[in-house]
Amino acid sequence: MSKEMTLAGDDFSLCPKFAKTFSILGKKWNGMIIEVLLHEKTQRFKDLAGHVAKCSDRVLCERLKELEQEGIVERKTFPGESRIEYCLTDRGAELAPVMAAVHAWSDKWCEAELDQMQKIG
């Protein structure tokens, strides 16, 4: 246990690294972007936008820049071409087990809610 996280009975505080991680992963659309890049490996902006369809181009562009600054996504440019591609860095690819755990949790706990939403919508 890290020294930032205290035992029961003491004052509880979250580890700053944990809080930083959730400030990245908890931001709307970041998880979806990471998930697409985990499965599709390299994507052009328009293809990525197609996978994360409800995210506006402006927000997608902002999120990609933020993920690039965090060292999770790499933006590849090609000299003499207008082509730009995005892929995960090694740091981003190491999120695969985290995303798998989120899938497992959602498979177990979100099915009833999703069924209800589909009936309403």
Automatic annotation (TrEMBL):
InterPro entries in the cross-refs: HTH_HxlR (IPR002577), WH-like_DNA-bd_sf (IPR036388), WH_DNA-bd_sf (IPR036390)
Keywords for this protein: DNA-binding, Transcription, Transcription regulation
Parts of the chain that traverse the membrane: none
Keyword Transferase: no
HTH hxlR-type domain location: 15-114
GO MF terms held by the record: DNA binding
A Pfam family that the UniProt record links to this protein: HxlR
Protein name listed in UniProt: Transcriptional regulator
Organism expressing this protein natively: Limosilactobacillus ingluviei
